[in-house]
Amino acid sequence: MADFKLDGRMKVKSLKDNFKKCFGATLRVYKSATCRGAFADDNATLASIRAEGKAGGELVVGGNLKVGNFEKKIAELYGIGVQVANAADTELADNDITLVAAGRE
Questions:
Q1: Three-class SS string for the chain?
Q2: Domain assignments of the chain as residue spans, ordered by start
Q3: Could you say which of 17, 46, 56, 101 has the lowest number of CB atoms within 10 Å?
Q4: What was the pLDDT predicted at 2?
Q5: What is the rounded radius of gyration, in angstroms, for the C-alpha atoms of the chain?
């Protein structure tokens, strides 16, 4: 399994598609860090939805990272909320399992 890379130039749709391809889990991307309200537009770049004052940049993630830690890193780096869901996108993954395990649920 390859590492998952993302940066501010990446579009939300590409982020979700690449995440699914790497880990098998579904990624829900929101406009706000609280994961409340509307989903982010698939055609928006991560930089365009990044919260004011957040650095952005590149992030490389391995499949052994826990779901909760991944969600926290995205919030810290970009100020946007993400939630990892199972492969069928029917329920959210437990924060204490790895990204790879989330894709197997």
A1: CCCEEECCCCEHHHHHHHHHHHHCCEEEEECCCCCCCCECCCCCEHHHHCCCCCCCCCEEECCCCEHHHHHHHHHHHHCCCEEEECCCCCCECCCCCEHHHHHHC
A2: 4-104
A3: 17
A4: 59
A5: 12
